[in-house]
Design goal:
Elements (H helix, E strand, L loop, with lengths): L1 H13 L18 H9 L16 H8 L4 E6 L2 E7 L3 H12 L2 E8 L3 E5 L9 E5 L3 E5 L3 E5 L3 E11 L5 H5 L4 E7 L2
Antiparallel strand pairs: 1-2, 1-9, 2-8, 3-4, 3-9, 4-7, 5-8, 6-7, 6-8
Length: 184
């Protein structure tokens, strides 16, 4: 019975923020001397357990929206932009592009992607992924893959082409030269 009293006492101490607390009648519950000394020693709480989240200003909201990083993707002279993912591989790729544009020689593979060596390894965080047209991924830590079709495999997502107009035609049927650079 003392356990039940302890539970009820605990609940009563947690609820003061929800309304006025009525005193517990001593004839409704059995109490022990130790329970009474605990309740007498603890001050009545007036704290509410809900925390209010400060509202964001319009400028803070637009800064978050603009925090997406963009990359230029030039395929055989045709320009596209890609929105980059937020991961460690992208961080390293961005560092590479900030030093100088990254030029890749990509070859067709299986009629749905272009793939080629990056020249160095990036930190991979592979997961089972279904890639679609416009997706840019890292394969085996050092291969860049650009999709014009679809495939499922373990990849690290790097980015996605924003506007696919002309994407498949730009990649064509043979090898392509792709230059990656940071958007100005």
């Amino acid at each position: 019975m003392s356990f039940l009293f302890f539970v009820l006492l605990s609940i009563s101490l947690l609820l003061p923020g929800c309304g006025k607390q009525e005193p517990v009648q001593s004839d409704t519950l059995e109490t022990s001397a130790s329970s009474e000394s605990i309740s007498a020693a603890e001050p009545e709480s007036t704290h509410s357990f809900e925390t209010e989240k400060p509202e964001q200003t319009e400028s803070e909201s637009s800064e978050e929206e603009n925090s997406e990083m963009m990359m230029n993707v030039n395929v055989n002279g045709q320009n596209f932009t890609a929105t980059l993912e937020n991961n460690r591989a992208v961080d390293v790729l961005v560092q590479m592009m900030e030093k100088s544009p990254v030029t890749l020689q990509l070859s067709d593979y299986a009629g749905f992607e272009k793939v080629g060596p990056l020249g160095q390894s990036l930190p991979a965080s592979n997961s089972q992924t279904t890639a679609h047209a416009g997706d840019i991924v890292l394969y085996q830590g050092n291969q860049i893959v650009m999709f014009y079709g679809s495939n499922s495999w373990n990849y690290t997502r790097l980015g996605h082409i924003d506007d696919l107009t002309g994407w498949e035609e730009a990649l064509g049927s043979g090898d392509v030269t792709v230059v990656l650079s940071m958007e100005d």
